[in-house]
Amino acid sequence: MFKKILFFLLIPFFLSSCASSSKLLQSGRYDDAIHKSIKKLRKMPDDRNEIAILRKAYKLAVKSDMDAVRALKLSGQPSAWESIYRHYLHLNQRQELISRLPDGLLARINFQPADYLTDMAVAKRNAANYFDAMGESLLKKPDRFSARKAWENFQKEANLFPESPDLNRKLNTARQLGMTHVLITVKNNSRQNLPRGFKNELTKIPFSKLNKRWVLFGNRFGEAVPIDYTVRLTLQNIAISPGLIDRQSRVEEKRVEDGWKYVLDKRGNVKKDSAGNDIKVKKYKIIRCRILQFRLTKSVQLNGTVDYYDHASGQRIKSRPITSQRIFDYAYATARGNLHAVSEETKALLDRPPMPFPDDVQMMVDAGRDMKQMLVQYVRQDSRLFH
Predict the structure, then answer these.
(1) Which residues pair with 249 in a beta bridge?
(2) Deepest of 5, 117, 193, 219, by most Cβ within 10 A of its Cβ?
(3) How many Å separate Cα 287 from the centre of its chain?
């Protein structure tokens, strides 16, 4: 799929590189025709056809930009100054490109340089003034979306005149007023007493991974900061099971070699092989070991909801269930008897020491850590709700 998209995107480039300067001129692509002709004239400076094409393409390109400038000025719209500036900038850049050609070639295309810099400077200043005035006007509106538009206007002004006085303060003000603030809180509706600092730990989130250009998350903001949305993690139920111990006893056995013995015939005499030697066979015995296996289990489960609220109206926008569980599952064993009889799996259990049950607080903290990760994932998935 990507290769197909790339192919279609590159089609105009290939067509431009393959088309002749004459074709480009006929299709109104004057700047492409200029570049094509200049490239050919560097190899063949006396190509009359390319000289004629360059002369005509340059004349038409200049006329096109100047016609656009006149039309924009006649519109009388202050917003037109940026486009006017871009046209003058284009005119000047094109003229600089042509002016680098040899003098003889410049004479043959009747090149007459013009002063675009003065008009370009005026248009640039007027455009910057327009963006500044628009930004100031938008900042007076009470909503954060207007402040964002104000920031965009001040940013355009900065692109034109970064040294404009008081511009950084205006950008910062627009940035602050345009920001959406999302407060993340925790509420305990369960009947379980939470460990000290548990609620605070749930909101210790790497907010930098959630923040977006115009959205700022936090678990607390200054009194002067307006809250736009609230994300509330509500704990509805906390279930902690008692520690259970399951004891199982079993015997493991294995058949092992235990020396050798003679093979006897029916009369009780030792059998001989074809060489006359006594026939011997291996002896086996069964060894046993009694295993006492212990399995310890305990669990904690946190259930709740993640609710999104419009802070001003208090209206709930969305709700999602959230559950986190931690299970302690530990097994070990003891043995009485011949340890050579036990399996490799049982040996691993025998190597494990007895282990006490974890306390309720630690299991709640671990489950809370998992729930916090789920909360971050939910907020990231639902980030489109905050604007």
Answers:
(1) 292
(2) 219
(3) 61
Q: DSSP readout, 227-239?
A: P-EEEEEEEEEEE
Q: Where along the chain do the CATH 3.30.160.150 domains lie?
A: 180-248+293-387
Please say if the pLDDT value at position 11 is more than 50. Answer: no
Long-range contacts, stretch 204-210, CB < 8 angstroms, 24+ apart: 204/372, 205/372, 205/375, 205/376, 206/376, 209/376, 209/380, 210/376, 210/379, 210/380, 210/383
Query: Which tokens sit at 266?
Result: 């029916």
Strand, helix or coil for residue 314: coil
Predicted local distance difference test score (pLDDT) of residue 265: 81
pLDDT digit string, tens, across residues 50-59? 999 999 999 9
The Cα 73–Cα 272 span in angstroms is 124
Express each pLDDT in 85-121 by its tens digit.
999 999 999 999 999 999 999 999 999 999 999 999 9
Residue whose C-alpha is closest to residue 248's, from 179, 294, 314, 184: 294
Q: What angle do CA 75, 62, 27 make, to 5 degrees?
A: 100
Indicate the pLDDT class of residue 17, thresholds 50, 70 and 90.
low
297 - beta bridge partners?
A: 244, 329
Burial class (CB in 10 A: 0-12, 13-18, 19+), 57: buried
Count CB neighbours of 34 within 10 A. 23
Q: Which two tokens stand for residue 248?
A: 């199982």
- Residue 115's identity, in one-letter code, is D
Question: What does the alpha-carbon distance between residue 212 and residue 217 come to, in Å, rounded to a whole number?
Answer: 9
Task: Assign 124 a pLDDT band (cuts: 50, 70, 90).
Answer: very high
Residue 5, pLDDT above cutoff 80: no
Burial of 280 (0-12, 13-18, 19+ CB in 10 A): middle
Homologous superfamily (CATH) for 180-248+293-387: Lipoprotein like domain (3.30.160.150)
Question: How distant, in Å, are the alpha carbons of 74, 81, 149 from that of 77?
Answer: 8, 8, 19
Q: Is pTM, for the whole model, over 0.70?
A: yes
Nearest alpha-carbon partner for 240 in 358, 113, 104, 111: 358
